[in-house]
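thread: overnight batch results

M.L. [08:02]
morning all. the overnight job finished for the chain we discussed friday. pasting input first so we're all looking at the same thing
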Amino acid sequence: MNRRYACTLMLAGAALMLACGCRPAYDAAQLQAGGRAYLAQCAVCHGAEGRGDGPLAASIAAEGKRPPAVLDAARVTSLGRDGVRRAIEASDHVRAGSPMPIWGPYLGPAWMDRIADFVVAAPAAGETTRTAVTRYLAAPSGTPPSGRRVYVMYCSGCHGPQGGGDGFLSPGIASRLAVEPLRGASLARFVDAELGRLIGSGGAHAPEAETMLGWLHTLSPDDRRALLGYLRTLPGTPQPD
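M.L. [08:03]
and the structure it wrote out:
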């Protein structure tokens, strides 16, 4: 899969309990939403803590590029809030040929604002942010350690923080994608082998999920197994018969 295409369509989550005093001008609930959306839309390249070390960073580096450390205090200060917002919308601060997606058409103004507010506030929050990210990405007891992290970075952009089909897309995009909830009876109807094939091959092999991407060449077998283990823990999802 073309890496730029994969990043652009990573429509692939953190209830970040940021201290309200870190950026008094910003609403705390807005920052929480922005943190979740950052982890869903940006962390796969830029990293969960914004260090430029996300899961796709090595592939991008192999092409002679590198995702920047977007939560670095000096970088945030140099760009300013308006610069961060423009970068999310149109990628207009990076060099020609950068793999940075243009997120404007996918996220819409409200979500871009929330992510920008989070990026600007996170460096000042420091350890509060890091602790909240770690907790948000932690796997449920008894499941593979990486399962929740894989879900957040690759799936929650469309399917939502807890599989409710309420991801971080603009209403217009979401209505065209017809995102399926990943819990309850909608998930339980698949046995593990079927669900594993759907994750790997995408919706072309399942008429009810025509818009879903396939992750066979992006996620390792271990990551796909970890993701499958996590999906079985989502609320209201019994084990299949």
